[in-house]
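hiii, so i know i said id send this last week but things got crazy w the move. better late than never?? heres the sequnce for the chain we talked about at the cafe, plus the structure i predicted for it. fair warning i was half asleep when i ran it
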Amino acid sequence: MSAGYKTATMLDSYNAFLFRDENAAGGEGPLAGVAVGVKANIAVKGMPFHAGIGAWEDRLAEADAEVVSRLRAAGAAITGILNMEEGALGAKTDNPHFGPTQNPHRDGFSPGGSSGGSGAAVAAGLCDIALGSDTMGSVRIPASHCGVYGFKPATDRVSQDGLLPADRSLDAIGPLARDLDVLEQTSRVITNFGDIAIEGTGATLIDHDVDVHPDVQTAFKAAVAALDSTPTDVALPHKQSRIRFAGFIGVSKKMAKDLAGVSVSDNLAKLLSYGPRRSAEDWAEDQVILAEAREAMRMIIAEYGFLILPTVPNPPFAHSEAEPAAQADFTCLANIAGLPAISIPAGWTQDGLPIGVQIVGPAGAEAGMFAIARQVDHKLSAYHAPNS
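okay and structure toks below
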């Protein structure tokens, strides 16, 4: 890491952890003996709480976020703070203040973002569970790129207390883990988890404008074939790139207001400039697009039970490459609709990089979603640890 980064010494070879509590201890409960890392925009009392923003490097959390309190009460040990995209805006985790996080499956490659430290730490076995935040895919994108499991709860079924937000209308704190049982157990602790079964044969999207990598398409087809049912092809009222851009504009507008006067990198400043300069006419159109996409997603889930999608249209990419703009084209849909979504490992590229698939379902039927995910996971058997 160059001397320009504020983290003087890397705590692990992936630069996933930015702070570690070597004396962390858990207690009794369903998560006893489980080590948890926490993204740097989620409050852990006495630990760094800077959201990857260099100007806030010395900020410490005064109290635990509610989700952290719940984990402690369940016996988990909170072991440290994880690297992330500056301000949680982006999906690469090449932080200009704290350095890039490496993908445990290939050095020099991005772990995704914005919860890239969370994905890398779990994949590398540095902790059992990691908390991330997901505004338009920031838990599920690292889960896919790092070959692990990630859950984004429904927006209103997990507390945002203690989260430095990107956009509260889209944000959800969610866990990442190396297997579905631990992921579900953690999700039951930190969220309002519903036990309703899912009825319906599911749906897949057609007529989308997303350029899906051939290896991702192959893995996705295998995941669909692993279902007990044959999903119905459905379409959304707008191109996914347009839906994603409308969502991004909203996040940019909100963050630009929240971070006014805060010193940020040139890259983040550029991203924050898009929202405020959006014309009133275009912003009104964005709101219509988001509302129609939200309604369409909810109707699809109500009619067909669940939606199965690639998590990310592209495989992991090198830090030396530009971040693909379409990474959140599939993941953003669950956030815009306020629905829960699970990403699971679905396969591998021809040169050995992980690929994920996601299941979006109704709030209150989280157990049903995990049952479908477990069925697909069992048939695909796609998870394996780095270098295994």
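btw The first helix runs from residue 66 to 73. thought thatd interest u
miss u guys!!
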